[in-house]
Amino acid sequence: MSAPLTPRQALQRRAQALDAAAQGVPDAIRIAAVADLPTRFGDFCIVAFHDPLDTSGREHVALVHGLVEGVQDVPVRLHSECLTGDALGSLRCDCRDQLEAALRLLSSGPCGALLYLRQEGRGIGLANKIKAYALQDTGLDTVDANLRLGFRDDERSYTTAARMLRALGVGSVRVLTNNPNKIKQLQDNGVIVSGRLPHALPPTAHNRDYLRTKQHRSGHLLDVPDDEP
Known about the structure:
Helix content is 38%, strand content 20%. It contains 9 helices and 7 strands. A 7-stranded mixed beta sheet has the order 1-2-3-5-4-6-7, with helices on both faces. Strand 6, helix 8 and strand 7 form a beta-alpha-beta unit.
């Protein structure tokens, strides 16, 4: 009797099956590479994708814990890149806290996946995000800063995220989010969403206004008190 596949082996087998199915299908998403990725939060596999329909040139990855192919109710976090928060430790947002909490949670269960999406600054890019910071320094909130720069409140798309989940072969997902738009976009793109896992972290003096704006103007499911300084 053969030994069970490791998560990496299972993902590599999935990649081979996708390659075979994609023959003659030019717009099919493929798994480009798979490797083990031990982290300070737990053990994952990192999965890179090639999506011909994503013309942005951005390379997205998934951090996968355990076996997810064919599994129902897989906990999933869609995390958009935030250089200032994720890598540099900015306190203006809660991005790094959310990233780290999600990885700890996903690694604590039998399986889960975090999609790391290269959509810096809610899709407006790094330089424009810093321009928005400068406007926020003059008193604008995050929504009005984006609008002043000629962007919508949120320019992100989760179409590629849905295709990544289908490429991984997950049966259904429980989305770790406070943002109903993520769930709607996944559902609109054919992903079966079986539930939502709240992902609210305590506000700080630096990000409280940022979170209030998310709650009151962007429709995020948060409960940030208005009477705190």
